[in-house]
Fold each of these.
Amino acid sequence: MTAVLGGRPEGLTSLALEDDDFDPRARLVVVGNGMAGARFVEEVLERGGGDQFRITVLGDEPHGNYNRIMLSPVLAGEEHEDDIVLNSHDWYADNGVTLRAGVRADRIDTAAKVVHAADGSVVPYDHLVLATGSYSFIPPMTGVRTDDGELKPGVHGFRTIDETRTMLDAVGRCRRAVVMGGGLLGLEAARALQGHGLHVELVHAMPHLMNMQLDAEAGAILKKSVESLGIAVHLDVFATEVFGTDRVEGVGLADGRRIDADLLVVAAGVRPNTDIGVRSGLEVQRGIVVDDQLRTDDPDVYAIGECAQHRGEVYGLVAPAWEHATVLADVLTGTDPDAEYHGSRTATKLKVAGVDVAVMGINTPERDDDEFLVISEPRRGVHLSVVIRDDKLIGATLLGDTRKVAFLTQAFDRGAPLPEERIRLLVDLSDGAEEVGVADMPRDSRVCNCNGVTKGAICGAVAEGCGSVGEVMDRTRAGKGCGSCKSLVKQIVEWAADGDLAEDPAASYYVPGIPLAKPDLMAAIRSQDLRSVSAVFTALAPGGQEDAKSKMGLTSLLKMLWGHDYVRESDGEFINDRVHGNIQRDGTFSVVPQMKGGVTTPAQLRRIADVAEKYEVPMVKVTGGQRIDLLGVRKEDLPAMWEDLGMPSGYAYGKSMRTVKTCVGSDFCRFGLDDSTQLGIDLETRFQGIESPAKIKMAVVGCPRNCAEAYVKDVGVVAVGSGMWEVYVGGAAGATVRKGDLLATVSSPDEVLTLTGRFLQYYRENANWLERTYDFVPRVGLDRLRHVLLEDGEGVVADLDAGIQRSIDAYTDPWGQDGKQPATPGQFRPSLPLIALPKVPVRSAPKASGSRLEVGR
Amino acid sequence: MSLADLTTAAPSIASGPRAHAVARVEDIPPGEGRTFVVAGTQIAVFRLRNGSLHATQAACPHAGGPLADGQTDVNVLVCPLHLYAYRWSDGASTNGAAPIRLFPVREVDGNVVVEA
Ligand code: SRM
Ligand SMILES: Cc1cc2nc3c(=O)[nH]c(=O)nc-3n(C[C@H](O)[C@H](O)[C@H](O)COP(=O)(O)OP(=O)(O)OC[C@H]3O[C@@H](n4cnc5c(N)ncnc54)[C@H](O)[C@@H]3O)c2cc1C
Ligand code: SF4
Ligand code: FES
């Protein structure tokens, strides 16, 4: 829980050259390494400010700069914290910026022009920028804090990555959460916690949700949508008390009710961090007061972001903060000494799946001649409204249906002309009139709100040679805030490039380390006769450099291309393939013997039982793939276990053919139309261990009742009577659920085997690394597959048949092989020899009484 | 093989009080790592395809993964559990995890000598 986000090893502080006496550059000090502060530094560097200034950043948080907006998806478990880092410690060092992370600034001595930091250090400045942001406001409640003033355990604010981590750490142990605050943050927190399986109740002191942005009617509809997600909503009531002696046990409301909870998230608003301004004698009202050049009442001290108050406004969104950063960078670097900031018009989106809310400007008419159009469908959870003044859009609320958000945002930002029929602003009327597409968008309309990127800027980047969506996003930063505009950015880039768009070149590479798409890579491997992973790197990688993350994909490809003649290099394999088992959380492995079609015998079961006892296997489990898994096996025990088992590997670890599930079929089942069990066994025998771009799972069922789930397998075979079999491909029921497409109906088991082989080989030769059939089949298209595989429309069927046969012939059981003669020295040596293994819990069969087993970590 | 074997089986040579010969170079296959217990500490030693030797702490700082089971190239070591990568040059994680500790290691007459 203590890892530093975007950190570096030498400690929290990255030091650039500090050669005070000889450095002629002015000292620019930034307090706060959040979204405004770090962006400001970037903007200064972009304007060549690195030559003008020695930049020092003091940051209270120990981390590099991260995308605070994305803490909601991180809390929801949808985004990994590593992926929200914007500027790592290395970035600061690489750009000659001294980052003093984990150091809080206490006070400014504006006369001496120095900052006093909490660690006792004194930092001199010529220009000082305050970007201290805000903190979560914790309203006074009885019992919310412990005697020493800390929040009671179980009470959390939601502002920083550390707070987010603490909550993530707690969710596993908690069952009931109360979220205080029904604004953006509260709703996002509530939904995220609910996603972790907690029962969530939301308490909001105002009469309707998101009262800052929505009117009462829209708020009421939003309440229904939120409730339909399973979140209880209590409105118009204050939480006044937090119960619990050592940690939160419940929350008391002003009307006397008590809600039991073991987690309380307070999202009842934020307060600007203005202490430093107050202590330093700067003018502070709600925020640190600044003028149109973001200057405080001291001429060398500036404030930007959420801590700043400009023309009476304090903003709580990132777009204004970043506008501040841009203007101030213009002013300080002299790029535009007269640049001014005149305030922001804000637009907000709620990042809660299942509840679409986008709001901009005002939500009710303010003047007599303001036009106001409302479409309200409470039953569907839809509420749309616009406010128009002098033919300009000055406000829009979209709830439950945000299809029009792109156009409305443009109209709002740029004052683009509005359609005469105002209703077209909110719905598409199907009279054939064109929708406003990207082509018709004015050049200066804003596409990315967070970063203020216009359509023109995106087109400019394309014109300057950015050849892919990724490059354009890197160059312009479009799509790098909350990410909700990414698809629009993509459309515009595609339109601007007018078909001339290099797909993101790297996106088409088969593996990241070799700049070749799969067909070219295969051709090069064949023509240059490259048979080992290291030979491929030497011949085809830039500078001949190997790349760890490319090795596994190359190994798989070489095995497919060369069969017997592939030269094995075990460092090219993932550990699973080196030791033929699936690595587990504590470094142990699992052993899954082959059990073709899920059919076993008493003798086989007896052997498995004996082995499980002999090696003290911590858990024996029937898998979802119809076989038996011995889990928690020490690496050094693997060869002996295989030997004792005397069964081939079930390949439960590889990117390869795994299992064929079957149902009992015509031999026993009263509905069975054909012998699905035998066909399953035959399929598994023929295709056992075949490596492929991703795992392959099959099933055969004896009738369309589909008891072995053949419709949702990579290859699924269904007996339909009269000797006929349907072959489905591209099905899935894992992270993605997709019903397979019917490739063909054939009239014998042999034809099933042949067609399956062709399909597999085509998939092996054409799919991207790790692309499962559920992505591959729709990408290629069923028509194309039929054309190639059934009609031999490309004349490749003979090659496909030969290719799969080569791999079938090259099959050897890895357990039989390496078990007897290790492939490399120390192949089965423990890699964590001092750690007492196994740490996974040892389980006995659950008792019939229904006593719960503890699931340990 | 017991733990004691692992530490004492290798020939000891006199190269300072804290240097330990842990294995023969050929005991570590090219591009792979093996773990040894050196003065009570478990240390993963890697022999890269370019011939260089590297030694790191054995357990991944992220969630204790067995680093010796990871994959390597000349720049980084990739942990097998969640694929975090660590640079050989300074142990830093390229994904923002805590850094790994590195130990000096060199070859002496075909022996792998680790200082710990
Ligand atoms: C053992 C088993 C669970 C069980 O106890 O039943 C299992 C265990 C794992 N599955 Fe699975 N899956 C198992 C059946 C399934 C099934 C059901 C099936 O095969 O009928 C599915 C859905 C079908 C499918 O694959 O689409 C399934 C979908 C996944 C996925 C999601 C794949 C996807 O693209 O949707 C993953 C993650 C991945 O592959 O990246 C995964 C990954 C894993 C891994 C390998 C996690 C990992 O990467 O280390 C688990 C290894 C545990 C271990 O340490 O041994 N497992 N997994 C099942 C072994 C079946 C077998 O006998 O071979
Ligand atoms: C969960 C969540 C979701 C959000 N979603 C959105 C969204 O969808 N859209 C949107 O526009 N905005 C969103 N926001 C708001 C957005 O994150 C803020 O507007 C933005 O971060 C403001 O930037 P800032 O630099 O002013 O403040 P911050 O990012 O808070 O940075 C201030 C930094 O200064 C440091 N600091 C404070 N005092 C000191 C001191 N004395 N010395 C040194 N360092 C100090 C702090 O530790 C902090 O790191 C969200 C915020 C949260 C928490
Ligand atoms: S469902 Fe998840 S936790 Fe369970 S075995 Fe599959 S991958 Fe592991
Ligand atoms: S344990 Fe090493 S990456 Fe997770």
Amino acid sequence: MRKRRISRRKFLEGTGTALAAVGVVATRPTIAAQRAGAAASGAARTAIRVTVNGVARQVDVDDRWTLAELLRDHLELTGTKIGCDRGECGACTVLLDGKPVYSCSQLAVWVDGRSVETVEGLVKNVQNEKLSAVQQAFVDRDAPQCGFCTSGQLMAAKALLSSNAHPTAEDARAAMTGNLCRCSNYNHYVDAVVAAGGRSAESLALPATGRLPATGRLPATGRASLSGEPSLAIESLAPQRVTALNVVGHATPRIDAVERVTGKAKYTGDIRLPGMLYARVLRSPHPHARIIRIDTSKARALPGVKAIVTHENCKVVWGAGGISGGQQYNDEVKKITKHRRYAFNNPVRFVGDPVAAVAAVDRHTAEDALQLIDVEYEPLAFVLDPEAALKPDAPKIWPEGNLSPNARNELMPISQKRGDIDAGFAQADHVFEDRFTTAFVHNAQMEPRAALAAWQGDKLTIYTPTQGISNCRTDMARDLEIPPEKVDVICHYMGGGFGNKNQNQDADLIATVLAKEAGAPVKLELSRKEDFIGVHGRWPTVQYYKVGVKNDGTLTAIQLRGYSGMGPYRKNSGSIGGIEIYQCPNHDVTVHPVYTNRTVSGNFRGPEFPQGFFGIESMMDEVASKLKLDPVEFIQKNMTRKFRDETPYTNYTLDECIRRGVEAFDWKKKWHPPGAEGGPIKHGCGVSFMAFRSGLGRSSAVIRLDSKGRYAVHVGVTDVGAGAKTTMALIAAEALDVPLSKIDLVWGDTDRCPFSVGESGSRTTIMTGQAVVEAAKDLKKQIAEKGLPKGDEVLIASASPNPQLQGKVRNAFGAHFVEVEVDAQLGGVRVVRYVCVHDCGRIINPLTADSQIKGGATMGIGMALHEDLLYDRRSGVPLTPGFYGARILTHRDAPPIEVIFIESDDGLGPFGAKSMGESSKVPAVAAVANAVFNAIGVRMRDLPITRDKILDALEAPGAAITAGGRS
Amino acid sequence: MLRDEPTLTPLAGCTDLYVALNFGTLKDTRFLDLWRLDRLRKIELRGGALSIGALATFTDLIRSTLVRKRLPMLAAAARDVGGVQIQNRGTIGGNVANASPAGDTLPVLAAADAVVVLQQAGGIRRVPFDGFYTGYRQTVRRPGELIVGIEIPPVRGRQFFRKVGTRAAQAISKIVMAGILGPATGSGRTARIALGSVAPTVVRVPRTEAALASGASIEAVQRTLMEEIAPIDDLRSTAEYRRRVAANLLARFVCGASRG
């Protein structure tokens, strides 16, 4: 992006000299090159005295370093994270003279003479590393999920507890609202802070390591915590009652929780290799343009620059970045894919498409070099809207047009038909039609994409936050055309992903080619803005429904015509899921995945479902309303009983989920016919349900027992934040019948771990977990046969099961019940009660399971009410690429979420577990939207449901509902 | 120093400057760091007026018993600025100098008839807040002048502050209103009302205030307000929304309605 502007680094470079009480600081873009050159060989430095975690230090700092940079890059205190680098997320929070500040927004020179406290200084006793009370509370309450925001949350909490020893939940929310958590574990964070202050010590919903009752509800006293954070209940379903186990089913803090609350967990950006270079990427400022010329000579001449790559000298294909049909990438798909994406493309097809990348001796030099790359573009016509993109006169993004081809390269939409749709409509007493739209929402995981690539001869080691190390390895090998065994992918900790860290990413390839070119390890860390526009989010959709129904509410036909905006490259399917959860003999689904000149769309927690469920469940809520039916009754009449009306489920608990939700929520009393009550604050209740099928795929596990009695469990999982490591360890301990403390988990490294399908599609627990169970069985058999190993002996067992479902379909089920208050004067929506009931089979770890469900529901509220990536329609430039713009929920927005698990055992998964991770996001958006409808009596058809839209809806002529409404 | 080089941009907490730099929208290239001028951080009573140093942070405002007692709506506004980290670093002087029409504390200062204290080598001048902004991001601050403080005369009457953002916290306002309502008299009540994010600058609404003073019905006053302001459509909201919500906020304020 060549703008004639002063970059922040240059600003920092200049302002740093301001040391006197009043100092003049200067930055002149014209001398930037000389300055940067100087930087490479030693820039202007200032000696400062600063106390860090109680230790007085004298440090020479570059005048342009931020405090975060000083801590992370130069004092090796990497517990402080950079999530946005512009004071919006709080991951970098440290205490400056006891007050929380964003260390990304402080210059290092400014802390001269002051005291800085970081997460590394929190331990109570450095010698024995005893955790402080707040850290221990974070561990006990499972506050960190991915852990990337945790250090910042801890520092904000520490400051609060120093001034207010016994904070309430409201105090905690106010003090920590500058700290975002995209895993959305706000309830647990707040609960932990309140517990640390001693307020709710006796109200622990979940004893940190206690046995939950195997059946029945938790005692009533355990359910309401003083902090106001509702807790968790686990109930066992009578017909499929689960039996108590020794390890599995007990609320257990994560096995790596201590690393996550002490700053010791090393994320990709925290790793440093000798001689490592820093990379930056130049991205297209145009939504669609041909690159006429790139001149990198000035940048190459800048001292400290070691490598520059552009489309001219890098022809690497990013296979997983553009896939015909958008399904799993493999060798066959590689052969056939027509609309290929390269690491660097010409023409560039969206604002943010990589144009060039630089590796240099430090990050400032790399950034300075970007400014010196001269690119001449020929802007081309562009199109942003998927429906507009299919019009005959729309600008063509690819020569064949803008309908993305299927896996056979046919220009065909996704289609699914059952029965006879016309006959279905003919049988109907009523036919209803409606249109719904959903917005592009970014995964917005707290850790921006990063990659560190190092070549040793022909062997590549890449540290990268990936949800699947094995897939990442095969993708990298395929793209680089080298054997997979020449690639080692390492991911020990990662800061969330929610689907956008599946497969390999262009950042991995860019770091890798730069490292090859420069002959040195290269680290690339994307800025928050780059992550927002350069890494994918959820595909936006337009959905047209037509539904036939009989007078008694029986469905006769459902038709969906949909359009999904995929950006200019097809990364994932683009389907719109949901209508199969209704029992109806006649379906007709046609969905068009369409190329547009926007940021690329891809997987995000339940890829096609939250948007599809919003559409279909809003539609069905509308049908119920038109027929003057209680939506719960309508759902009970029409919900799926067999998968696609044909295939039986491995077990079926939807009735039970809805029954329990109705009871817990007190639905029959709370729900009222849709429509506005008098007064400015309107209450409403909404419901949505779900059946969710997880991904499959084989995984392996290896267990090695030595003579010391240690069980090393090798699994190819990483841990996106859902707690896969702990889950695997619990399953192993249970299956081996040994205490958890005997298990050593080996994870996150393709050279050390067997194949695992990866943390996507909510399948780690059931697929890799089953492999652990099978390997444990084999090991126990070996022990029985050979006895325990002695001396140097080891026993090794492995398994690669291919679980069979006996012709059935395994689904997780659930229902969400939401109560909202809509402010009819200001348009705001406040979620006042949120009850989720889920059947995820047996709950392996109630503590982390609760976090998962709460996180998904909270994210769903954000998608329903706030999140969007807005574009300037004239320029095609995204306008809100960041946390402020995307408006993800904060501590103060996130309501308490109540979770009820209906436990069941279908006898197939590990100890009866089914999938979980994505499922709670799936029905959440629709439940919130339906509650808004119930409150105001006007259907909100376009996401997000902003204040503006609500006021528009309320004031539109004829907005008030006529059927069944209250006045 | 500013006298010698009047084009320097003074900076303190940098909470807005950083964002401008990040988005590449900042044109200034030379800066003057004020952060360590502790004497500009005082909050005190001076000659009956509440005097707030330009470098007082939002946290200082929230914690100040003087502010909470005399101008609680300013403490409320400060609490709505970002998270604690921003409140610890952002200053009232910076909020005023940045001249954003969405600045959270600015409607409070406008409604309270605050005075901006400017200093340069030659001396001090005081500018009424109502006359401080001349256009979008434009002020009467002359090159070489520094905002050193804000003075707020005693305020009588009920105070009101409400920021409406997209989410509950960490939001740039869609609309923000501050008001002071004097006691009701036979013919009406004195009112001072200021709004942010409805015009190129924070504005007072004299016609609306006059309508209130004249004892007009709330509906009539709301209509006056909707005519008086000229909001625009932008990223965060629509003109229509802002107009309606301004009227609704006014009703809440004047009628003392429930939730703010």
